[in-house]
Design a protein that fits this description.
about 575 residues; Clc chloride channel; CBS-domain; two-stranded antiparallel sheet; 5 strands; about 60% helix
Length: about 575
């Protein structure tokens, strides 16, 4: 009897998952279960830290009436722990890769170390009371574990990106007990497109995660509105106005975070002291209103179920906005997912209150406006209009309210795209020099560089005579020749046929025939930039040179455009699951 070779089992597993759609769906279910368990674990860890630091009797930190003053020292203490973590990983030369960046630029590849680092930093930040949410940690761990499993199984690039999206979406869906929200989060935020090939794996993962949280005793994020107002036609217009206001607020919040972050980075404050100083700055904000602490889950429910004056709502809104900007600007880790939901609920209530002061204006229900504002501002900051609309539906079970929420979300999304063009995650990548605007896969474009597309061509010295050039390169031997100067540096390109013009004298210097002696590509330039250079100079070939000006090779326009078209077609086939 032949015993199975244990070293061949992974090979058979890899082949099955690479060739079977059903196997990929089953894998997504397993990833969804893991994502749900990790979400419960991270949520419990953050709540344990908050109770340890602020008192064992608290249920939601942001909903407490007041905080004992000395306990607010937990904020700079959390900053000190973050500084310690940064010291331990000080040898890293790059920032951790998050799920959006991984799917956009790296084909879904994330290291487990990056995921653990992001999760630890977010848990410390949220657990110490900084104004950041845990959704970044949830999505990072869900997508990170999916990526590690997919890489071990050697999944294709398209399948790995889908699996990362399924893991991240499952984690977010588990956090809210809302599988539709998680699925649309995967499509809109992490994968960057609605794809037929991704539909079944993403949905299966999100449903599996939601089942895990319910079996474990978790509850859906349900918002029980005190009363339901009939939605009239004019309400759609009024809520569209709320969407426009939310877009302005969202862009302002993202820019405020960036201004503070850049200012702190340029300041003489040492890196280890920045989160500690940020924690100290958060103390007076938390002293004025505990609702600025943590993400704001408890505060959102509290403000929806109690009578809060208009000026108090506006004050909490400004304090929370400042707390979120200071937290992220000074180095606390996390996201603006739930903070934007909370800020949106406050903005919606303020919007309804101000409309009530206008004579003859139809009234809006404050709670309805809060829920719609919650979706609109979250779309402005995080992106994903259908994600946030599904969150409204699964949180309220109100289809009519979901309809106006979609209206406001689409208005906010359109304005942000037209005037700003980024979500918060892609905006932070943009400030680091990246050009992505979504998680849509553009990593293959960056891989098509001049260094990889070039090929070798003959070269000659620019001081050579035409006679010598003709002797070395007879007609038909080469279509073009690169010229170099006495130091071997690039000096232009000569079409071979140009050296055989009948009016040329044999002793004439061939360098006089060179074209574009001052125009060349660098090895790291991408295909899009290369094609732009071809369009500008209207030539067929461009040389590739290194930093010293030494010739590395030549790139032809025809070859670049063919490779670019082939990659686009491949990406389209992957998108529809036809590869």
């Amino acid at each position: 009897m032949i015993k199975p070779d244990p070293h061949r089992i992974p090979f058979h597993l890899r082949r099955r998952f690479r060739s079977s759609e059903a196997a990929l769906i089953a894998l997504a279910v397993g990833i969804g279960i893991l994502a749900g368990l990790m979400t419960l674990l991270q949520s419990g860890a953050a709540r344990f830290l908050q109770r340890l630091l602020y008192g064992w009797g608290i249920e939601h930190l942001s909903a407490v009436d007041a905080v004992v003053p000395y306990r607010l020292l937990a904020l700079p203490l959390g900053g000190a722990v973050l500084a310690g973590i940064a010291y331990l990983v000080r040898k890293r030369r790059r920032a951790p890769v998050d799920v959006v960046e991984a799917n956009a630029l790296h084909g879904g590849q994330i290291t487990l170390r990056d995921s653990l680092l992001v999760s630890a930093q977010t848990l410390v930040s949220n657990g110490s009371g900084a104004s950041v949410g845990l959704e970044a940690a949830y999505a990072q761990m869900g997508g990170g574990v999916a990526s590690v499993c997919g890489q071990w199984l050697r999944l294709r690039r398209a399948d790995l990106r889908v699996l990362v999206g399924a893991g991240a979406g499952a984690a977010v869906g588990a956090a809210f007990g809302a599988p539709l929200t998680g699925a649309f989060y995967a499509f809109e935020i992490v994968i960057g497109a609605y794809t037929p090939a991704a539909l079944a794996p993403v949905a299966a993962g999100a449903l599996a995660a939601a089942v895990v949280t319910r079996v474990a005793g978790g509850t859906s994020y349900f918002i029980a509105l005190p009363s339901a107002h009939a939605i009239a036609t004019v309400d759609y217009l009024l809520y569209a106005g709320l969407g426009l206001v939310s877009a302005v607020v969202g862009v302002g919040l993202m820019r405020l975070v960036t201004v503070i972050e850049i200012g702190v980075r340029r300041s003489p404050i040492p890196d280890p002291l920045r989160p500690i100083l940020g924690g100290l700055l958060l103390i007076p904000l938390a002293w004025m209103s505990p609702q600025t602490l943590s993400a704001g889950h408890g505060a959102l429910r509290l403000d929806l179920t109690t009578q809060v004056t208009l000026d108090m709502l506006a004050g909490i809104f400004l304090l929370k906005m400042a707390a979120s900007a200071v937290s992220l600007g000074f180095g606390f880790r996390g996201g603006l997912f739930f903070a934007s939901l909370f800020l949106g609920s406050l903005a919606g209530q303020v919007y309804a209150g101000l409309l009530a002061l206008v004579p003859g204006m139809p009234p809006l229900g404050a709670n309805d406006a809060a829920v719609v504002g919650m979706a609109a501002l979250a779309v402005a900051v995080v992106g994903g209009p259908m994600t946030m609309s599904m969150l409204v539906l699964e949180s309220t079970h109100d289809f009519a309210l979901t309809g106006v929420a979609i209206t406001a979300a689409l208005c906010a999304s359109t304005v942000v795209r037209e005037t700003f063009g980024f979500s918060f995650s892609t905006w932070r990548l943009h400030t680091r020099g990246e050009t992505i605007r979504s998680a849509r896969d553009i990593g293959w474009v960056k891989a098509l560089t001049a260094g990889k597309l070039m090929r070798r061509v003959p070269s000659a010295e620019a001081e050579s005579s035409v006679t010598e050039f003709r002797r070395r390169f007879p007609l038909g031997s080469a279509t073009r020749v690169v010229l170099t100067d006495g130091n071997g540096a690039y000096a232009g390109i000569v079409p071979t046929s140009a050296a055989y013009a009948p009016e040329l004298e044999g002793d004439e210097v061939v360098g006089t025939l060179a074209i574009l002696p001052d125009v060349a590509l660098h090895p790291d330039q991408g295909a899009v930039e290369i094609m732009r250079e071809f369009d500008e100079w209207e030539v067929d070939d461009l040389a590739v040179v290194d930093q010293a000006g030494q010739v590395l090779g030549v790139v032809s326009e025809r070859f670049v455009r063919r490779r670019y078209t082939d990659e686009i077609e491949k990406a389209q086939r992957d998108l529809f699951g036809e590869s």
